[in-house]
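Two records follow; treat each independently.
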Amino acid sequence: MAWLQRPNPANLLGVGRLKNFHALQVDDHFFAKPPLAISRLKAELGTKELWCSFQPGQYGWRAARHCDHVDIQLYRQGCNATVDTTYRLGLAGRQDTAIAIYHDGSAADDRHLSCMKEALRKTGNHLFVFKWKSPEHWLSPYTKPLWSTASRFFGRQHSKPT
């Protein structure tokens, strides 16, 4: 799998000529401001698969129909909110669409993951787990409120470290 977190036209055009991968993963950075049409990207890939990760507000069936794998990034929502969003987006029961959450390696996220597996099993969706350390994981109890406020102010509460 090749993953382009920050795709641009230069590294997307001709991506089909690259060797030793069977699929390209484009994440929400692609869909925030698509550097080229997704249909063109799919054509560039030839026989390789296109995996697409959307934020809930970016998801649309027109773009998703070009993707061989779709996941919706609901990283920080609880079980009930995730199920609600799954139904609101019309994704419940869609076997071709996974719900993506992240796991930071903590015991709290182990419990969250267990709850999510059960909740999404009931909706008929697959779970797609991203594992990385959130920058919040390393913050002290004294600086965490500052990080949370700054994140909301700058609109980055759902972004992942690069």
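The next record belongs to a different protein.
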Amino acid sequence: MFSRTDIKITLHGERHLGAVIGSDTFREEYVSNKVSGWVKDVEELSEIAKEDPQLAYTAYTKGLAHRWTFFQRTIKNISNLFIPLEEAIRNNFIPALLGRGISDEQRKLIALPLRYGGLAIQNPVITSDKEFQASDTITNEIQQLIYDQDTEIEKFDRSKMNTEKQSIRAIYQRNKAEVRI
């Protein structure tokens, strides 16, 4: 039926708008490959951190760490795939920055935002499910309009979305304050 078109039919999955859709196996393979690349990036930054920790820290927080946030927000149930990345961050990058290893409690403190005395180097295993849930909650109304194939965009209530964002921010702040205490 589609042999004379550019339409590609697949049973496994495909990259879609930078994320991935398809079977669990395809999704896990795709994300695992991405994580492997990010692990290599973290290892390279770890080497830089030994000589220039401020430069490596800035590159990590302003650039590298944002690469996986999109995946976390758009692909469900992938937190376990981030274990190798967290291991590289915890065992290579943070020790290179600080010049020593860290305990489990110190890792939690380092994940805190700067305003709470942390370094804002979050654990991607922990943030993955939270990021997806927050994104899903915030976009729920627009998702439903798309699912219903409703073309009346006027039905979209931006203030409701902003209320959801504020609610999620408040929950994040409460959780971070609890870790700090």
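Discussion point: The CA atoms of residues 2 and 8 lie 8 Å apart. How would you locate this feature using only the token line?
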